[in-house]
Each structure stands twice: as C-alpha cells, then as structure tokens.
Amino acid sequence: MARTTTETTRVLTVNEDGEITGESTEVTTHEVRYEQEPDYVKLYIQTLSVFTDIKQTTGKVFYELVKLMSYAEYEQLVYLNPVLRRNIQNNLGIKQSMFDKALKELKDKGLIRKVANNTFSINPDYVGRGKWRDIRRLRATFDFITGDVQTDFGYGEQ
Description:
Layout lengths: L1 E13 L5 E14 L8 E2 L12 H13 L8 E3 L2 H11 L3 H13 L3 E5 L2 E4 L4 E2 L3 H8 L1 E2 L6 E2 L8
Antiparallel strand pairs: 1-2, 3-7, 4-6, 5-6, 8-9
C-alpha cells in the first residue's frame, strides 16, 4: 500500500543587507510505502464462553485446527490428511483416540462441522480469518426475494 505526500517549500533569496531579492517555490512529492497488515486470526470475545464447556485437550485441538484453517473467502476449511493429524497428535502428546474424541466434541459443540472426508469448516461465529466481508458472508446468508436471513450453518448437527 502506498501513500503520496507533497511538500511545498518557499525559498527566499536574501542579499548581504538582509533584503529579499528573490523568491521561489519548490514542490517535492514523496511516495511512502506502508507494510500490509500481516495475517491474523480473529477470535470473537463475546463468544469465548463456549470454551468453558469443552475439555482442555479439545481446546488445544481446536487451536491447532484454527492455525491450519484457510481464509474465509475459502470457507475457513481445514484439510486433515493423515500427516497433519499425526503432527497435531505428536505436538499435543495425545493418541489418535483422544484426537478423534476431541473432533467429535468440537462437532457436537458446534465449533466445527465436517464438510467432506477429512475436511472440516471452522464456525465463523467463533473464529474468523481474513477480510470482514468474507467472514460476514460465512456468518449469514440472505434471501433477497423473501427478506429472510439464514445464520444456521449446521454446526453441531453431525
């Protein structure tokens, strides 16, 4: 991202007696480049209370999934191939059975939903990654004909 600034300088020419003998104006244009905002994940503070009802290990698994999820424009998906599953299990020091129980609890609590084999979507009501317009699109769908707003994405039903 760049921003252009203009600097105007008034130059006066003064003789030995201190009298102004000339005047000119110099205009300088600078282009300043700002670093783009780094990637981030937003965790909606108002909905943090949901975490009080999940086991500690389940919360850690959820955090690992959030780190792997795609941006909202790509539906906040997590692709859990066998290598990623094993890496998460090793990082957390848990067995596959505990990992599977944590995934089930996350689904039951509505934090994630299974969208395909080894593919999960993180509920955008709790966590959003990317531009707000994309997160907002995931959080609500609108029927412009009937005026209905649908916000149920099927989390917690599988």
